[in-house]
Specification:
Oligomer: single chain
Distance between the termini: 85 Å
CATH superfamily: Ribosomal protein L20, C-terminal domain
Radius of gyration: 26 Å
Number of domains: 1
Number of helices: 5
Shape: rod-shaped
Helix content: over 70%
Length: about 110
């Protein structure tokens, strides 16, 4: 009995991955072994950085809130403690947006907890 290989499925698998390598530089876009390694590494980075993105944004929000709070004579930790004590449940994303784009609203919040 002749050896049977499923060429259709194998080609489909390779084509799918080569499509993912579109836009890569040099041999990474058109040589199967190089492209496969580049794609797999890229997928690892994508997974890892979806988690890191959340950390990065939280750090950015904290910096913006801190800058806004210091304009009104408070530190970030003092402001967050006072908000918690006053039972004002605004998350860091919203507070950072207020500090950046709506300084009057942010000032009223700071005045309320002072």
């Amino acid at each position: 009995m002749p050896r049977s290989v499923n060429v259709v499925a194998a080609r489909h698998r390779r084509k799918k991955m080569m499509k993912m390598a579109k836009g890569y530089f040099g041999r990474r876009k058109n040589v199967w072994t190089v492209a496969k390694n580049a794609i797999e590494k890229g997928l690892v980075y994508a997974y890892r950085d979806r988690k890191a993105k959340k950390r990065d944004f939280r750090a950015l929000w904290i910096q913006r809130i801190n800058a806004g709070a210091r304009e009104h004579g408070m530190s970030y930790s003092q402001l967050m403690g006072a908000l918690k004590k006053a039972n004002i449940d605004l998350n860091r994303k919203v507070l950072a947006d207020l500090a950046m784009n709506h300084p009057d609203a942010f000032k009223s919040i700071v005045d309320k907890v002072k």
